[in-house]
């Protein structure tokens, strides 16, 4: 893979910092952080006629970064007002020095936002990775200060992370600064790109402070971005190809009243390039054709077990929890040697029947689980809040407990694998929060498996592409309000072809003949 961007926990960042300061000529990281933030403020948020800056400095080293930022901006001629919420005597050595430097240049300190002032930009240096808002909640004064900043509707640069947000898990239990840009130091933190972090971080700019973090701490988690994903694409198709080369996906689900879920998964698989797609439907007397997508081959579920050329199975869309669904899933888990994508009620059944979970753990072929937070909570025997407050851990636990590849869906979906590696998805938007988009994802994953991608790569590509397809729809305002699962499918097909062929798929296969 092509240098994916690593993610570091708070503990990792502290370890890297310790290694850096233990060097013979230790770098002044606070100075570098403040300088980087001042440059970003000047270059991206200020202009000649916008020169008034409000800097918020908190009680710890994040506040120290803020004093350094304030000092540089003032040196460069900007008008800087600084609020300090801490106590000078409790500051670390570096932060004390930064405060002293600010005061020495004539900088003033306020305890509250002056009511008479007006500003063009705000720098948020209240809290960084030292705040764990779940364990140590922000008091009312801080909450009011943060709300006041958010209500000013000004561009905000957050130092390291938006204050109030947990850097490890992206939760903001009370409130957090809504940043326009987050200048994050040393390494990217998972909390910026999952759960509530997606709401608060704004544009993220990584400032490495001249440290080569990867050489100091080997990462276990990475960001899924377009650069990484483009290394996973299927190869362009040979001109002399046939449908057998692109696999056959079997989709099992579609109990009475839920056939649409299986149809959506089927269309997702078909339009992401599977050679053939069969639907094994649990409904009594199921329809034999979908007039809107006649390419799909609809069968009663038992007939699917007789096919010997399937490449993979997607089990769950509209499966239901009836005994027939349970028996069907049991048979698949016990007898099938195909890669399996398990979604929706397949996951709920596994959560409720420990014998199904036991068989799943011992499968030799790859199994991919695609739970949302509620399904993940059932699988882990916990509640939704616990999953959401520890999304990385929940995804990792699922991968390890069930010996499966897992995507924990939601804002900033997390893909986790049994080897402990974890990937956080950067694509997607709330347009995806509508019925059927999960079914589409399971079908898309099946299509990529059928075309020969490894289970890890199929899951990563499907998850990123699914989100990117939704993002592309925003460009024509086909969302986020009212975006539909079917539209995701067409948008994903367009993007996948664009990524594999550029804009020139037609030329690759055009057969112009000339006679000279
Ligand atoms: N780790 C590093 O290598 C570097 C850290 N730097 C900065 O330092 C930050 C971490 O500094 P700290 O560890 O001092 O932590 P923070 O400055 O993020 O916050 C900790 C401070 O907040 C107080 N606090 C915690 N919870 C509180 C609550 N609920 N209500 C009120 N006060 C509360 C603590 O008593 C402490 O004073 C980073 O986010 C970054 O901005 C930078 O200077 C660059 C280098
Ligand atoms: N706010 C959001 N941001 C990004 N992705 C989202 C958001 N809301 C939902 N999604 C994505 O949409 C899909 C919803 O799946 P799921 O909840 O299983 O839907 P359904 O059961 O209706 O098919 C998942 O891929 C999830 O990651
Ligand atoms: K901050």
From TrEMBL:
Binding site for K(+): 62, 124, 163
Residues the entry annotates as binding (6S)-NADPHX: 61-65, 142, 160, 261, 318, 372, 439
Keywords for the protein's UniProt record, in alphabetical order: ATP-binding, Isomerase, Kinase, Lyase, Metal-binding, Multifunctional enzyme, NAD, NADP, Nucleotide-binding, Potassium, Transferase
Catalytic activity: (6R)-NADHX = (6S)-NADHX; (6S)-NADPHX + ADP = AMP + phosphate + NADPH + H(+); (6R)-NADPHX = (6S)-NADPHX; (6S)-NADHX + ADP = AMP + phosphate + NADH + H(+)
Positions of AMP binding: 409-413, 438
Domain YjeF N-terminal: 13-217
CDD domains cross-referenced by the UniProt entry: YXKO-related
Superkingdom field: Bacteria
YjeF C-terminal domain residues: 226-499
SUPFAM superfamilies listed in its UniProt record: Ribokinase-like, YjeF N-terminal domain-like
EC assignment: 4.2.1.136, 5.1.99.6
GO MF term list: ADP-dependent NAD(P)H-hydrate dehydratase activity; ATP binding; kinase activity; metal ion binding; NAD(P)HX epimerase activity
Cofactor, free-text remark: Binds 1 potassium ion per subunit.
A GO biological-process term: nicotinamide nucleotide metabolic process
Cofactor(s), by name: K(+); Mg(2+)
Pfam family name, one: YjeF_N
NCBIfam families associated with the record: yjeF_cterm, yjeF_nterm
Subunit structure: Homotetramer.
Function description: Catalyzes the epimerization of the S- and R-forms of NAD(P)HX, a damaged form of NAD(P)H that is a result of enzymatic or heat-dependent hydration. This is a prerequisite for the S-specific NAD(P)H-hydrate dehydratase to allow the repair of both epimers of NAD(P)HX.
Family of the protein in this entry: In the N-terminal section; belongs to the NnrE/AIBP family. Belongs to the NnrD/CARKD family.
Protein name: Bifunctional NAD(P)H-hydrate repair enzyme
Organism: Nitrosomonas communis
